[in-house]
């Protein structure tokens, strides 16, 4: 039966098939089989860490299979391209017939193939698919997830983004057993990380998954001998907060809010979906036109001098100064116009050629 749901996706990986390497496969060594599940670039860094560690002569485990999202149409050509995890595995010479790309983790064919691999442990990192109980029942030592928050805080799909949006000064990464309830399993270990006021979500995601990789390697011996289950601490559900998936409709900035709130949103939504704003461009004849911008980099000006027209956008230093709620201003140092590349605020301002810029009503 098909390993990957659509036949085209099966052919995509099988065309690059290579013979099973010494560091992968379902048998032939005394090493314990681990199956890794992940999809984006941050997960690929975790897989790389595991593959390197598994190649050590004294390693107690081997990566027996990789599970990731199916190839998706990307870029202007809409060509089917593998996930970052699949691409890394292929580049490392991982057997393509052991890279599984089910549409859903509950597919019978996939679960059958997974059982054939005989995993003793599954590890997930930003996989992006719900794991049914039939999946969770397969690995002897369970499934362990690298979650980029200090659980039970920020359970859900966007923990880093929602934490930055809330303006937290500290976050971290947790290793937790996967249960049917979302991100609610016992926590094996966690590591804290101080958050500065300028870091954006893509950078923070990379940092936390890097910390999570190191934490995972440190805890793997206890996970693989079963003792981690004894020390893992149940989460206090009463302290849980949730981090729902980002929505593109949330990307608009409203300058009726405090500058700090908007700055945190810019940091949180960096990458995808980004943050957008509407301004008014008034020409020399006083005729207004709506200008839509994508806001890339910001700072907070806690107290700024506003003009007699409290809606006017000024320029100072290297930033646009957009008046916000109270006496605060949002300093915008980088922005992007529709169909254009990211530009500095100075270059943008110089291109206005004397036209006035206002907040959009």
UniProtKB/TrEMBL annotation:
Recorded coiled-coil stretches: none
Gene3D superfamilies the UniProt entry points to: Formyl transferase, C-terminal domain (3.10.25.10), Formyl transferase, N-terminal domain (3.40.50.170)
Disordered as annotated region, ranges: 228-247
Protein name from the UniProt record: Methionyl-tRNA formyltransferase, mitochondrial
Organism: Leersia perrieri
Segments of skewed composition (Basic and acidic residues): 228-242
Assigned keywords, A-Z: Protein biosynthesis, Transferase
Residue ranges constituting the Formyl transferase N-terminal domain according to the UniProt record: 33-198
EC number(s) per entry: 2.1.2.9
GO cellular component: mitochondrion
GO molecular function, one term: methionyl-tRNA formyltransferase activity
InterPro entries in the cross-refs: Fmt, Formyl_trans_C, Formyl_trans_C_sf, Formyl_transf_N, Formyl_transf_N_sf, Formyl_transferase-like_C_sf, Met-tRNA-FMT_C, Met-tRNA-FMT_N
Membership in a protein family: Belongs to the Fmt family.
Domain Formyl transferase C-terminal: 245-352
């Amino acid at each position: 039966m098909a390993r990957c749901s659509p036949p085209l996706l099966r052919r995509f990986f099988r065309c690059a098939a290579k013979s099973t390497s010494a560091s992968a496969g379902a048998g032939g060594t005394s090493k314990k089989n681990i199956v890794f599940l992940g999809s984006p670039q941050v997960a690929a860094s975790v897989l790389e860490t595991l593959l390197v560690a598994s190649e050590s002569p004294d390693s107690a485990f081997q990566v027996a299979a990789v599970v990731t999202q199916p190839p998706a149409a990307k870029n202007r050509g809409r060509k089917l391209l593998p996930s970052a995890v699949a691409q890394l595995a292929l580049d490392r010479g991982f057997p393509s017939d052991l890279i599984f790309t089910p549409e859903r983790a509950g597919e019978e064919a996939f679960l059958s193939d997974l059982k054939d691999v005989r995993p003793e442990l599954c590890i997930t990192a930003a996989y992006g698919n719900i794991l049914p109980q039939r999946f969770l029942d397969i690995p002897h030592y369970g499934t362990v997830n690298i979650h980029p928050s200090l659980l039970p805080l920020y359970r859900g799909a966007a923990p880093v983004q929602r934490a930055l949006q809330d303006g937290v000064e500290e976050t971290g990464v947790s290793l937790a057993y996967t249960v049917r309830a979302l991100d609610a399993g016992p926590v094996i270990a966690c590591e804290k990380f101080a958050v500065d006021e300028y870091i954006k979500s893509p950078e923070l995601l990379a940092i936390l998954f890097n910390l999570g990789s190191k934490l995972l390697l440190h805890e793997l011996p206890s996970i693989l001998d079963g003792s981690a289950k004894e020390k893992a601490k149940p989460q206090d559900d009463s302290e849980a907060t949730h981090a729902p998936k980002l929505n593109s409709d949330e990307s608009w900035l409203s300058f009726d809010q405090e500058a700090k709130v908007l700055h945190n949103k810019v940091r949180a939504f960096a990458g995808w979906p980004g943050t957008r704003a509407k301004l008014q461009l008034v020409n020399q004849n006083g005729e207004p036109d709506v200008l839509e911008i994508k806001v890339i980099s910001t700072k907070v000006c806690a107290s700024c001098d506003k003009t007699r027209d409290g809606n006017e956008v000024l320029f100072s230093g290297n930033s646009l100064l957009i008046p916000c709620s109270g006496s605060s201003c949002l300093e915008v140092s980088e922005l992007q116009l529709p169909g254009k590349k990211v530009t500095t605020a100075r270059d943008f301002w110089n291109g206005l050629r004397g036209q006035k810029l206002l907040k959009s009503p």
